Amino acid sequence: MNLRQLLEKEPCRVRNDERPSIDFLYADRQHGPLGRGWQMSRVERGRIQVLIVDDNEDAANMLAVAMEFYGYQTVVAFSGADALHAVQESMPHVAILDLGMPVMSGMELARRLRQMRASGELLLMALTGWGQHEAGKASRAAGFDCHFVKPADPAALSTAIEEEAFRRRVAASG
């Protein structure tokens, strides 16, 4: 089987390090942008690892179950320190962070994660009870890519992940 046949059979591309990248998880489809018949398959979502960080263990575990329902792999942490360790161990593609955690806030965790990894590699999503406009601006300044107010619909989180991956795919094909 040649490379072309392999790519036609396997719609997803993988980096040389054998770790799937959110940048390259899309099949070459002719369906156009999201919202016009295009969306990730469950197999494609299954290659994306999502780190969920919340000091409320029940909330974190429930969100993990919901994201797994959509097909994502999940890793759960209940503190900023645990999250930093998890990122070194598992190298997730997406991190959904609660902002109002004790000891290390989600804002501080986001800053540290951005310092640890190349800025564009990790999709950072704020998930918080703080819905004020100022909170959204502050989360952007801390390095978050998007801001969701609790309780967030897991379908909306999944859509945001898909849209960001699609944007990265388009930018990479440029």
> In sequence order, what are the helices and strands, one letter per element?
HHEHEHEHEHEH
CATH architecture: 3-Layer(aba) Sandwich
Structural class: alpha/beta
* Total domain modules: 1
Q: Which outline best applies?
A: globular
Question: What's the CATH first level?
Answer: Alpha Beta
Q: In order across it, which strands form the biggest sheet?
A: 2-1-3-4-5
Instruction: Please summarize the sheet with the most strands.
Output: 5 strands, parallel
Q: How many strands appear in the DSSP assignment?
A: 5
Mean pLDDT: 77
> In terms of per-residue confidence, which ranges show pLDDT below 50 for 5 or more consecutive residues?
1-37
The CATH topology: Rossmann fold
Please characterize this protein's 3D structure.
The protein has a single domain (3-173), classed as Rossmann fold. The two termini are 29 Å apart. It contains seven helices and five strands; from the N terminus they run H-H-E-H-E-H-E-H-E-H-E-H. 43% of the residues lie in helices and 14% in strands. It has a five-stranded parallel beta sheet with strand order 2-1-3-4-5, with helices on both faces. The longest helix is centred in the last third of the chain and has 20 residues, at 154-173.
Which secondary structure elements does this structure contain, and how are they paired or packed?
Blueprint: H1 3-9, H2 42-45, E1 49-53, H3 57-69, E2 73-77, H4 80-90, E3 94-98, H5 106-116, E4 123-128, H6 133-141, E5 146-149, H7 154-173
Parallel strand pairs: 1-2, 1-3, 3-4, 4-5
Helix pairs in contact: 4-5
